[in-house]
Specification:
The structure is a single chain. This protein is α/β, with parallel strands linked by helices. Helix content is 37%, strand content 23%. The protein is built from nine helices and 17 strands. The chain starts with a strand and ends with a strand. Bound molecules: adenosine-5'-diphosphate and phosphoric acid mono(formamide)ester. Phosphoric acid mono(formamide)ester (CP) binds next to helix 2. The site of adenosine-5'-diphosphate (ADP) has 18 residues, from loops. Keywords: Arginine metabolism, Kinase, Transferase. One of its GO terms (molecular function) is carbamate kinase activity.
């Protein structure tokens, strides 16, 4: 079977077009954890990374809206809050799903910090979509009134974008490795809380959202995972996405993926980082594979029945 790092998309954890409530997320997490429990029962050793784009955006929005009555929390603290509530949902639902299958394995969500480079050029060029979707008119209003940078997100509407520096080092990696044999660890949530390391060794939170696909890739390398599985809303990666000639891909080699990236087939901020993370993993581990598929197809994809598989050759 082997070691598996599963990355769960922040958007995919919201339920369809309905309101992004905690209750709606819990329903999606419940269903997702049924699949993850089944994967665990097949003998895979698992760590889980989750996204937080929609969630951290809403936490920030809530504080900004309520600033007359309660102090606005800094960006990094909002990121940590999103790790807390998403991790709590996964922890609760996965333990329940495992118990139903008589699989007695602990599940723990670990608040995780990720070291980034304070000089990362990403701080000057915001690309990571967070929070809710707006139409163009609403997006312009947000730009004028709040000074946000707004960008179109993969044909789904406009969202606020923030800096997304590359993850460099998982601060809690030793704890993850120690827990690995006995426990399913939920770690690097939202890509990890971004921190910079000062000369004194002190860590300081920064205003950014790390891409959880890149964080999951780093984790997969560090724990020597056999497979990086990125779960999102779509069953397969496509070329000519959302066009009449859309074609879903079952397999890509590293070379094919590089060519498709150069052709601009994958939308920045959504599918592009997933493909880039998968490419990085197989480049570093030519005998291993990465899979991109939807939450509900995870087991079938592991069995080779669906999803988009990326291999070195
Ligand atoms: N080439 C593509 N193939 C498939 N999906 C694509 C492609 N380009 C953009 N997408 C969009 O990217 C989405 C996944 O990105 P996103 O919603 O940001 O992920 P997450 O689930 O990690 O939050 C898909 O649901 C789809 O709408
Ligand atoms: N942090 C992050 O990558 O979140 P999403 O999966 O929501 O984009």
């Amino acid at each position: 079977m082997g070691k598996l790092v599963i990355a769960l998309g922040g958007n995919a954890l919201q339920s369809g077009n309905g309101p992004a409530t905690a209750e709606a997320q819990l329903e999606v997490v419940k269903k997702t954890c049924e699949h993850i429990a089944e994967i665990s029962c097949r003998g895979y050793e698992i760590a889980i990374v989750h996204g937080n784009g929609p969630q951290v955006g809403r936490i920030l929005q809530a504080y900004e809206t309520a600033k007359e009555v309660t102090p606005v929390m800094p960006f990094d603290v909002c990121g940590a809050m999103s790790q807390g509530y998403i991790g709590y949902h996964i922890q609760q639902c996965l333990k329940y799903a495992l118990n139903l299958r008589n699989k007695n394995i602990p599940v723990v969500a670990l608040a995780t910090q990720m070291i980034v480079d304070g000089a990362d050029p990403a701080f000057q060029n915001p690309t990571k979509p967070i929070g809710q979707f707006y139409n163009e008119q609403e997006a312009k209003k947000q730009e004028q009134e709040k000074g946000y940078v707004m960008k179109e997100d993969a044909g789904r509407g406009f969202r606020r974008v923030v800096a997304s520096p590359l993850p460099k080092r998982i601060v809690e990696i030793d704890a993850v490795k120690k827990l690995w044999d006995s426990t399913i660890v939920i770690t690097c949530g939202g890509g990890g809380v971004p921190v910079v390391e000062k000369d004194t060794g002190i860590l300081e939170g920064v205003a950014a959202v790390i891409d959880k696909d890149f964080a999951a890739e780093l984790l997969a390398e560090q724990v020597e995972a056999d497979c990086l599985m990125i779960l999102t809303e779509v069953e397969k990666v496509a070329i000519n996405f959302n066009k009449p000639n859309q074609e879903n891909l079952s397999h890509m080699t590293l070379e094919e993926a590089s060519r498709l990236v150069e052709e601009g087939q994958f939308a920045p901020g959504s599918m592009l980082p997933k493909v880039q993370a998968a490419m990085k993993f197989v480049r570093a581990n030519p005998s291993k594979k990465a899979i991109i598929t939807s939450l509900d197809k995870s087991l079938e994809a592991l069995e080779g029945k669906t999803g988009t598989v990326l291999t070195f050759a």
